[in-house]
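hey so u asked for the seq, here:
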Amino acid sequence: MNASLPRRIAETIGRFGASPARGRQAVLNGMVLPLLQELGWDVFDTSAVVPDFALGRHRVDLALCGTPLARPHCVVELEGRWREGNAVAEVLPRARRAGVPLLLVTDGPTWRLFFAEDGEDAEPVFALDLRTSEDTAEVLDRFLSSGHVVSGASVKEAVMRRAIPRAWQRLVSRADGQLVELLRDEVWDSAGVRPDAGDVRCFLAEVAPGPRAAIPASGSGTRRRAHRRGTVTIEGREHDFANMKDALVVVLRYLHARDETFLERCAAHPVFAGRARGDRTRRYIARNAEVLYPHRPDLRQHATELVDGWWLATNSNNATKERQMRAAAEVGGLGFGTDLVLTPRPA
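ran it, structure tokens below
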């Protein structure tokens, strides 16, 4: 890591905090470009760090190409009071279609890096407030230094940090025999009683991490606090969720842990089988992702694995997800609003 990077971060934050200017150009010239230069980008070569880059029909503030005429490795979008709309929702799908793996969104003091393949509702690979975050220089160097970005090391790091919690999620949510028996043996060793396998499966469904569980961006062990949108309470047990997709996944996994026939029965329900709205070609729960999007392979990245062998299509709005949650409660024999409660209900 460039030894002068921490000092440059402190200097730019000092200048930014003292300046009354908060416009786009002030953010770009006063913070973003100086830090990118410190991270090894030649900001004076406009063919390598390209301003006002055309990404399809949309233009982004910067494209980090590294070498002239190369396809961008990362695009940068500035956000602030001068910008209308959601920078992530608008730019990330375009970046993915253009084959650009990384999107950096910044208002100057805060920097968020997204992996394009995660989709527009993704959690960032890292979210830093340069004024308060620890290990800022280390994280910026690891993910945004020109050497790491151009070599592909940053993308590999992002993929790894996405894959570890998802692999753990699949392991826990499957609640396979070996994991269940290990936990039963551990309880026996520590408490002298052996729990029922069904109770262990319900417990694993409850503690299974959500789709956006993340490990720290830095190596210090400091966790980024997850964004908590609300709580879904199932039979008195509370589960935090970040969005409606998380809440629906929690409910489906929980009910599957109670009854291994649940997903089979749920997949046949008109709401999940596409018949509720007259669409007989659309399925929302199936044994593989290809069945969910038979004619749109580009959308299969929106499929979420619930448990081993079962997939959920999540490319739908919140109203559809709420209908699906009501249907899941019906199939599982729960009362929506009594046995299964959303607090607060997502907008």
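The radius of gyration is 23 Å. The first helix runs from residue 5 to 18.
lmk if thats what u needed
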